Structure prediction request, 307 residues.
Amino acid sequence: MSVLVFGSINMDLVAQTPRLPQPGETLQGYNFITIAGGKGANQAVAAARLGATTHMVGRVGGDTFADRLLEGLRANSVGCEGVLRDNSTHSGVATIAVDNSGENQIIIIPGANGCVSPEDVDRLKPLFSGATSLLLQLEIPWEAVEVAVRAAEAAGVRVILDPAPVPDRFPDKLYPLIEIITPNEVEASQLVGFSVNDAETAEKAATFLLDRGVKAAVIKLGAKGVFWATKSESFFVPAFAVKAVDTVAAGDAFNGGMAAALDEGRSLREAILWGAATGALSTTKVGAQSSLPDRQTLEAVLTATEN
Prediction:
């Protein structure tokens, strides 16, 4: 049993500031930190910290950031045999501004992530044996993601797609190959063509996605909770009450937590609870991978909720 992740690996350059700047405005922040991130790597670490055997496939650059990024993945027990060091470019970087309420603005410079190609899927295929899920995001080129989706579906591995950032055109032909799609409010709105901002509009969005062939649609509504649906059932999960200080990687934490639960054979409903709790806990600390909870912390929150 294992969870596979094919996606981005970034170094996050985080500036903390009282509020986010307006266009053309210069603000003085009060702290700067560098933290390992990237949606793919974040999801891999999230799953691994909860006990799932996890493997990462992607690229880093030929710089010193690459050393730190690989060390961080290995320190969290993420298998890195599928990560290529690409000396022709730099590692992916994200510049992030975070305000006192935990809201953020992010600019991504792809670097090595932008060089990921369909050929990289060749390093992914040997890992399909025994894998329960393949986690995908869209911070690497769409062409590589499409090949990975088809390869996983052919191998009988569950495809979980976080459609972020949403491409200009999302091919309808791929929806039936996706078992679980997990957009947030903004991404869901872009996919379905109408505003998604509450449980009612999330239900409509889920219906839209199910009609196009996905097996399950999970709409992440941030502090409002999560709405999910399959053809046979639907459910709304209220958000876990926490004091958020930084929402970076909350969506990645959700996907990693959900995949870890599914890897243990838990139901989709229980897996979404795991995802919601993991995502909420990640907002209580600053940073991406540095904010992701361990199994003991997650279980304590889930037990408290049950009681």
About this structure: The mean pLDDT is 94. The first helix runs from residue 39 to 49. DSSP finds nine helices and 13 strands in the chain.
